[in-house]
Fold these 2 entries.
Entry 1:
Amino acid sequence: MSLGKFIERLLQLIPVLLGVSVIVFVMMLFTPGDPVDIMLGDQHVTEEMEQALRRDMGLDLPPHERFFKFLGNAMTGDFGLSYYHRQPVAEVIASRLPATIELSLAALIFALLVSIPLGVLAAVRKNSFLDRLATVTSLFGVSLPGFWFGILLILFFAVNMRWLPVSGRAGFESEVAPITHLLLIDSLLRGRIDAFWDALKHLILPTITLGLPMASILMRVTRASMLDVLNRDYITFAEAKGLSRTRILVKHALKNALIPTVTVAAIETGSLLGGNMVVETVFGWPGLGRLVVESIFVRNYPLIQAAVLFYAVTYVMLNFFADILYTMLNPRVKL
Amino acid sequence: MTMAQTELKAPRPETLFQRNMKLFASSKLSMFFLCVTIGFVVMAVAAPLIAPHDPNEADLFRRLMPPAWMEGGDWAYVLGCDGLGRDILSRIIYGSRISIFIGASVIIVATTIGVLAGLAAGFLRGWVDVVISRLVDILLGFPYLIFAIALIAMTGPGLQNIVLALAYKEWVIPCRVVRGETLATTGVEYVEAAQAMGASKSNIMLREILPNILSPVLVVSTVRMANVIILEASLSFLGLGVQPPTASWGAMVADGRSFMLQEWWLSTFPGLAILLLVLSINVVSQGLRDAFDPKFHD
């Protein structure tokens, strides 16, 4: 893709991001309850102090000025104070973000590791028992409600078999001084194998729960595109040349068959963000998703606003990269 | 040529939609799961007649009673009772009303809006297309569940608010499909013929184009309905759905969570109900797609 096209595509993001911010702002504008009242809670303050706070938060400005103030603040990462934590919203979000990133990455890797081999096998042995099994499994994968599946996994693997922990991100004894804030990596960097195992054990069940629907979708995509590629002339030609089956599959077919898988994976990574709220709640995972759910019940609106904006911007960017990736892998497609 | 032969009428040609539906009906698996789905709908409609007990009738003497086949169970309460002694089977039967009502209303509202907006964007083009497509792009910028959660945080939980929160974003999906399909009909003979005959724009959109793009709309709405049911259950599970004591499957799973170490039946059965309904709709949708996708016709 030419640089010009890339910049053009990048510029197209501006109206979308602006629209997203308008919607988030309007949502919060119409939220019932006075922000100052909610923030003060039971504290008794004088009328003047309340007015000062109102001015300080920009609540006395007309809506359009408030929007530009919100936008300007958002660009500098200033989302105000979390009513509940008495800490800047950006700090609270930053402290919960690594857990969510770690879980999402693990789910993505799990989904790719499961779906690609299964999808390829199902396509190569079309209509075999394995193919049918994979199809049925993927149908279940997209139909299982994540929160329920998570509970069943806990019940079996954690409660009955006692192989894995019930919830949380790590035990007390496996705390390591943070470097990247991703526990798996930090524990390895610090040479704490025990902490690594502990973090890995905590990660397994939430990863499967979050990654299963994605794995199911990717399996279907890989199977379909592999079937498509295997019918192409160049595969027949490679077979006629007498190349081995494995060589044809790996060197010729897979390379092209994976283009749709990679693209869909990039798009679906965005949907992992939504799934995080449910999975983090089930497994007591201390990430951003659970923080948002908790914030709703304590009406911590600045935090919800910032988190929704953050999720949306991440989602838009992921879709943008999926687009770019698709064009780079598939030169016939023009943006 | 005899008279009898000339009077013979040519059989009415089967429309593509009819042929596709026949193809769909020939799949036993799809028909079986269609029956299961219809069974759920009947259960929801006839809940007061079918449910053995009042779903909200609590009795602490029956608290956490196990299913009938386990020790301490009672055949009058086949699937056991919850933490307040309410009959789980009756609550599952009544809970189907919420799932199906929300699933169906969201899809009906969203499909109607999405189809109209998609037709307008694809056929009228110009500024209408620009406005609708930009709005679609912006709404697509939000992860679904987060958008719904943010709206519910604002409006508060409740049946109507949940339907609205989900429909606000859901219409985008049929809209994109219909816009694409409508764009593909530009320059097609039947549209040009209608234009030449002086048909009004709304007439062309609704009478000519719409009937020809119904198949993809139907496929998309079924697969989305399965999705909406899971989303509603997820919202209920998080405590943002229909509020207690109204029975909803997601909330039943959440309630049972604190008892799951011993009383597994509290969460298991409502979860199975969600799985079965969503799976059935997904299989039906898959069958429709196989029947409608021309690639599968060979």
Entry 2:
Amino acid sequence: MSHDHSLNPETMPNEPEKATEEGKNKFLGFWFFLGGETVLFACLFGTYIALRNSTAGGPTANELFGLELVFMMTILLLTSSLTSVYAMYHMKNNDFKKMQLWLGITAILGFTFLGLEIYEFTHYIVDYEFTFRSSAFGSAFYTLVGFHGGHVTFGLAWLIAIMIRNAKRGLNLYNAPKFYTWSLYWHFIDVIWVFIFTVVYLMGKVG
Amino acid sequence: MKGWTGKLRAFALLGFVALVLSACGKENLTALDPKGYGADQSLYLIILTTIIMLFVLAVVMIVYTIVLIRYRKKKGQEDYIPKQVEGNRTLETVWTVIPIILLLIIAVPTVTATFDLADESAASDSLNIDVTGNQYWWHFNYDGQEVQTSQDLYIPVGERVYLNMMSSDVIHSFWVPTIAGKMDVNPENENTMYIEAHEEGVYWGKCAEFCGPSHSLMDFKVIAVSPEEFDQWLNDMQNADPEPEPENAVAQEGQSLFEENNCMSCHAIGSSSASIGPNLTNYGNRSTLAGVEDLNKENLVDWIMDPEALKPGNKMTGQYPEVSENEAGKIAEYLLQLDETDITPESAGNE
Amino acid sequence: MSTVASQKRGFGAVLWDYLTTVDHKKIAHLYLFGGGFFFLLGGLEAMIIRIQLAVPENDFVSAGFYNELLTMHGTTMIFLAAMPLLFALMNAVVPLQIGARDVAFPFLNSLGFWLFLFGGLILNLSWFLEGAPDAGWTAYAPLSVTSPGHGVDFYVIGLQIAGAGTLIAGINFLVTIINMRAPGMTYMRMPLFTWTTFVTSVLILFAFPALTIGLFLLMFDRMFGSAFFDVGLGGNSIIWQHLFWIFGHPEVYILILPAFGIFSEIFATFSRKRLFGYTAMVFATILIAFFGFMVWAHHMFTVGLGPVANSIFAIATMAIAVPTGIKIFNWLATMWGGRITINTSMLWALGFIPSFTIGGMTGVMVAAVVADYQYHDTYFVVAHFHYVIVGGVVFGILAGLHYWWPKMFGRVLHEGMGKLTFWTFFIGFHLTFFIQHFLGLMGMPRRYWVFLENQGLDTGNMISTIGAFFMAFGVVVMLINVVYTALKGEKAADDPWDGRTLEWTMASPPAEYNFKQAPLVRGLDPLWIEKTEGKGQLTPAEPLGDIHMPNASFLPFLMSLGLFIAGFGFIYQVDYDWAYILLFAGMAMTLGCMLIRSLKDDHGYHIPKDELEREAD
């Protein structure tokens, strides 16, 4: 068929993710989607800031948070953002195997982050009896951080799905935008985490 | 500045109010015939903005009429092609700048009045009343006076009274249109506003924030009496007997029934601060029953037997054993003779 | 050609076509009928409200039922009627106006519609399942949190699903307008309706997430025991008001801006004149949208935010009057010196000018904080927003429908019935709402189930109710008109109104691919330019070639159905464990469909060049 999208070094465009009209649309549309997500998280941050001292006699942010664990989580997620950049670098060089490899590493880092977050939540619930229902602070904390965790989970599921789907057939102009939009999503999640680290954990310890 | 606004106010009051007075609603309920400081401020701004906006509307309508008369398609114009005009900078500047000027004329007094009505500097030297909004009634606690009352708020005329308002359940809004604009009554933070009535009178108050099935029945009154009468009222209320001696045998029975049927666990008589239900110290003097009906024995019996029929969703229904009509009559007899003070809505002159 | 073909097909085939379609023109039909249905429902609720308020202390309906009616009337009209009807026009017209073959994301376009429809169904099914939401369309906490039964749960879930659909539609239009314009169609040559659609989509994108979060918090409080609005555990109910109005105020502009766009098209066409001050109109639109995000707290003047916040929000609010005024005067100047044809469409536009000006005037009046202490939550405000929403948005939708009906359906709506609808609706509208300004100032708060006797409110309310019946009559005539037109209506020419923009260059209704060849746009009002230069049609910008088309898909329907099922799971898991089955099955269905969509290649198909050539003959 004349509309074959598969790539070889000769047909490889500079930016495979934006080489087709569908790709261009997807790229732009996804940026807009992230704009909406920004407002979504901004509202959650606003709510959290308004309620972060409303502990109703329960544990406070300062009592709960341990920065060591959160710092480790931050490093993991930041690194995963870097590894996803490597993956995109290899995509632009049409090196599918290396792209998959770096995406795999990204996924592992993501899963480790998620594991630590689950451990963190369990720790609060079991050791401090600090739950979603304890106080307005509890509700706001679990909702904000949980929304982020949900995004990480969804991002990992999405990554695994497109990695497996395209494992055999390699890169083409049809799936390049899919990998690229995924990487945008992953960076976004990472940026949100930086704000969570600052607003929730650092301010919780200091403020 | 002062003189300019004063003149405008005088003009506005004379011209406009006189014009609409005939059709501006019921006295002591309408916002168009103010008898209090806040309502004066509001009406002044209402009139100012109305005049400016009517001017804008007039300009629009004049151009609109001319356009429709002059440029409507006429016979023989089927093929006429008008000149395609891109725009006109002068014109467009004019209709940008003039509205800005008009808005500034509105904005300055708006901001001034906003800060004026939020002024709490005199609060500590004034009478302070804690207002509590409940589904679907109002409670008033006179700060530092050991006086509690519900539904009828007595205030001295010509004095600033500060209201510190909070809700015990959902959001309500305190509104006495003839005296002042409204202020929300929130469950989490106290809002303060002041009211000042210029004339004695019984003013209608309404809940203005949607609060449930009986939102439209959450009326109350503000009763402005002379300062002397107010002092007497305070004094009478302070000295009210929490266990008043009933005047006759029926009322006596009513009192026993009132106690037996658990009424006391919600309704206080005297200055007790318990306020699960309305305080009944001067119940016999109330201007209305449950805020909306004429206060008489017949209505009161109906209310005691089935509050739900009058106020759907109220918190009294089902909180006490069923009473017979006879028993309800006796309780009503008892309640109606709870008039510990001579200061009543009639003392306020009208109504 | 396509209409002939569809007449031959059976009902099942047509149904399947609409269930799976990704064609923006068919999705426009779906939005129109979906939105129209909910509009009638909301109107019915309004009529019951007005009958209840015809006389003092009426007991036509109970207090609880009345509160359900007023909540559902507001929610339905805003989310399920006005917005979808505008989306119908946007879908039908915007791709044509910019010279595109379809929207950027045809699949998402379909998904957006089905999410809206299933969200609206959930909301309305509450009538049959333990009662509708009763906390007002604003659903202020704590009333909405403590409201017994499941009514408010239906509100939360229904709006969450419908809101997701709206967000998707917004992103779709943004990308469509940025990426899919025909050669030569620069931003400053886009028709005003396209411009307002663009700006509205930006508003949707940044406003709806605030509602999403507000609804999540309310949902968590009601269904999962969190404490956002629970004062006892440190919660704060004012947060809901902020989130709601950060969404809610831009929502007003989401509704009115497209209507402004519609009027701009109609005034220019029927005055036979180029839109006066096009550049100013575009910037006024952008300015209104920009200010729209900075004025939400003017809905909260009486909340107790303090004089500083109140003053800032008051001045920002007044500032919006300036660009709005610019628009009104530009429309008048467009007509000035023109040759005005008055038909039904133009009548609605002409009726809009005085009605909306009054709505705008009272808008400035309610912005004056201390005056608003009296207006707030009274019938004055009810009158104000009905002047804006009915006098602006509904008039706009009806004007737009009469204007574009020929393009959407290939038939012209009946003029006589159209004019009858206009006059009865217009008179009824002013009769209903003008008097309400005074009712408010005379002491009638909004959302009152009854008003008392002897409070001077009787006459005004009676007049208002009579007006409502006039409006209802107008709507019924409109309905008859639609049916009549579908059966016997006059066939529409390609360009029935002597149009100026690209949608009038093609057949009525257009072929499924819209443009055989992308048109070359040489300026604002491209068709008008070609007409004045004697050509009468657009020059193609490309040679005739194969046309790439997207495949139809049933997945959007299934995804939305999944959320619909899961919605019931969320609502009933509070009471019954079996509801978890619905919850997980529904979510699995939606996520499964998303996975299929992601993993299954969908390259679309091509209409070959020779087939296109054959059609030309």
